[in-house]
Amino acid sequence: MSHWLPALTLFSSLTAGLVTFGLPESWRRLRAALSLGGSLLGVLLVGVMLAGVFGGNTYHSSLTLLPDVDVVLQADPLSLLFASLSSLLWLVTTVYAVGYFRDSPNLSRFFGFFSLCVSATVGIALAGNLLTFLLFYEMLTLATYPLVVHRGTPEALRAGARYLAYTLPAGVALLVAVVWLHTLNGGVDFAVGGALGPELRERETLLRVLFGLLVVSLGVKAALVPLHGWLPAAMVAPAPVSSLLHAVAVVKAGAFGIVRVVYDVFGVEFAAALGVLGPLALAAAVTILYGSLRALYQDDLKRRLAYSTVSQVSYIVLGAAVLGPLSTVGGVVHLVHQGLMKITLFFCAGSYAETAHVHRVSELDGLGRRMPWTSLAFSVGALGMVGLPPFAGFVSKWYLALGGVAGGAWWVLVLLLTSTLLNAAYFLPILYRLWFRPPLGAAGGEARAAMLAPALVTAALALGAGLLAGSPWSPLAWARFIAELEYAR
Amino acid sequence: MIAAVSAVPLFLAALVPWLGRFSLRLLPWAPLPALLLLVVPTPGVELNWLLLGSRLGLDPVGRVFLLFGNLLWTCAGAYAIGYLRSDAAAGRFCLWWLLALAGYQLAVLAQDPISFYFGFTLMSLAAYGLVVHRGDAAALRAGRVYLVLTLLGEVAVLAGIMLGFAHGGGEGLLLLGLAVKAGLMPLHVWLPLAHPAAPAPASAVLSGVMIKVGLLGWLRVVAPGGDAWPEAGAVLLVAGLVSAYGGVLLGLTQREPKSVLAYSSISQMGMIAAVTGAALQDPVAGAALLPALLLYALHHGLAKGALFMGVALRGGVLYWSGMLLAALALAGAPFTSGALAKVAVKAGLGAGWLPMALSVAATGTTLLLGRLLLLLRTSPAVVGGGLQRASFAATVLASQLLAWWAAPGLAGKLTAPAGLWQAAWPVLLGLVLLAGLRLRQPMTLAAGDMVVVLERVAALTVAGGRRLGERLAALRAPQWRLPAPPARWERRLQRWSGGSGAVLAVLGLLALASLL
Lengths: 489, 516
Description:
The structure holds two protein chains of two kinds. Chain A has helices at about 5-20, 30-55, 75-100, 105-125, 130-150, 155-185, 205-220, 230-235, 240-245, 250-265, 270-275, 275-295, 300-320, 325-355, 365-370, 370-385, 390-405, 410-435, 450-465, 475-489, and strands spanning about 60-65, 70-75. By secondary structure, chain A is mainly α. In chain A, strand 1 and strand 2 form a beta hairpin. The radius of gyration of chain A is 21 Å and the shape is globular. The two termini of chain A are about 30 Å apart. By secondary structure, chain B is mostly helical. Chain B has 22 helices and two strands. In chain B, strands 1-2 form a two-stranded antiparallel sheet. The longest helix of chain B has 30 residues, at about 135-165. The termini of chain B are far apart. The model of chain B has no long low-confidence stretch (mean pLDDT about 85). The interface of A and B includes residues 293, 296, 372, 466 and 470 of A.
């Protein structure tokens, strides 16, 4: 069974996606049941593996494609962290999407690609070597395009073209880097502490070039400035897509890739010795500040959230780029925390757009009275992003800043606190409008249950991940477990 | 049991959406668990699952803050029932009130920095809702200034805590961040805007207990009687004295009674800061000054709370004698709680120029509060019911009785002729000055003094940022496109029938090459 579990997890969503393509447009119930069933199965399988890995088991599926080229899926603590995030959020997003698109056309196409997108993400999470990672990473690029252009409007098509214009060249660069490294090293299996052989480790200049190539190509999806241009444009996608895009799928895949490269390909200590972490930290710092500054001046709610993602995802990169266990904990745990908080915010933004037809920050006045539960969820997400206790963002910030100071990088503390103030400057005015301004337009009701419940669930998780961070079941506990493995050697 | 002190107000806050304005009736009862905790000794708890591991407990410093704080929360809560009787948005007020209360309790009971920070933040941010409750332009402006300064203070506190955890150190940042809450000059600008803007019961707790959390934080960071820290002590001493005198001078330029009281709070907190600074400079005196500081906080908290409640009331002899008593107490007139607090402080300070400086400041306080009472005589009355009057009276009484009960050993010093004179002369001098000035106001300054300049600077910065952003957005990436190959190439290729043959030939060659 342990040979099959990772592959089964992947196939649960893949099969659901492929079957959905074949369903007639009118079979709404079966389509919903299939998507939900697939995602529930995914959550279940990841849960089983989580328990197993915690108990010391290993799960490993592999398939030899060509001599020397194996597709490997395996469950290690880091892969399970990302896999459980993506499978869990896929489940809630599916519920949200079913509520969001009640009677739109082309839903079989949508849900089909939606499931493919998630299986690609699960593949990225569980990939056991760099080639497998590349395979699913490219699959993700292609599976996401139809979701971005789903509406088919000229604006959506333009955004889609922009998305491809950024991600396809990046894919080519990644391909070159991966094949190069694969050839030099004779395969790159992810391993705690680094996967590079001793002879290769001596070719430092070449490795620096390869690291740069990997990070730049992964940085496109992770939206590192100046490679972030596609992300704010892609917010024309329907809300469930934006939610998944910003919280787990595309942006996170890039960030997760960088984390993998730093920890499990180069090894964080070796990367530090190479001197490549400094430039990476600088890129993360620039991105954090630039994203926040841009977010400050956006009136379009989703666009403001998109720039906020640009900024927040680089917290993860920052955690990877600063040497030391505390930074690792902060970066890795933010992978989960940012996902929970950002998906909540996008769910709510989608509910505001669908239920109240409000797309702009300046139109949010008094919506807290009309849609109190949605606004409550939004507030949890926003305060969490600012990093206030007891929400999840506080825990990430705490570990990242402590890691920075412990590693002698004082500027990390200054950077994070500046970012806190900037986050407050663009999130608190939204909360002010929601709760303290008199309502603008006609009265109306709360979002429908299928859209409200997912937002409340993720908001509760974002609260719980912070409030109960000290408990043994929190994402923090798991991130500590990962950091212990990385630095225990 | 300890956790309930903070959890009960939180739970009640969660009920507010369903209870609506009925929640007003809950306000006086929400501090009950805290008052019970004072009576029933309870061991501290460690909650490892909460945040990054929390420890709650009640130590001697926390006991004092829990006592006077919750008495004021209770009385002001009862006062709010009457004050907000006809307010349509009373439910919302209760929500912020209860959240701020929960934050206060947590900050007092916290035995580790992160829990303190959590409580401090919760209280500070929830108080924003109290400040802007009225919803008019002045309240919103006050809220904005309050929020900006509060967030800056938060960040400084957090930075200090983080440095402390990572390295040790960071106390300076903590003192600075907490100084915003304590209203120390020049970080005071939010206070004269926020305290008058809030409804009277909220002003009472803002000025009575919430700014005291600044002091609580200082005492947690640098325990007086521990290691000396002369530099920080000097800074606190100077900034404290500047606030003590500056608060009086600026307060005299105000026309609004609540603004006068707000500046008086700045002045009083300044004296507390100066004494804290003195305690930091000399550990021996520091150990003696700690109880004096606590007594001062208790006395000022309740008396100032009572005055803020009283500002919204008018009445007969009983009312005026209550106001007069609270005002005299703040000035430190003989037999009042203020005199007790000042005797305790001066005993701790010993010789030197500081006791004299504080006595002169007390003259200023007399002047300022005299001005307040005169302003009240002419300013329009606000209707107040029996419950409000009763809460006001209870607070005045509590401020006096509690101080005497807490410091029985000082009574002898106070009633000796020397002690009487020491307490009396600053007040008498103040009264003489008040009469001499013929109650003329020297000039009128806008409440919040420097904030006017700061707001202008902030507006210019924001406008500049927006312009810069627009200019950046105008810098579009060039819309390059791959040049299309000339159309005739394509036409020629389509006419070329040998195309497929050529492809096959190439593939064949490749196959051959791979075999070799």
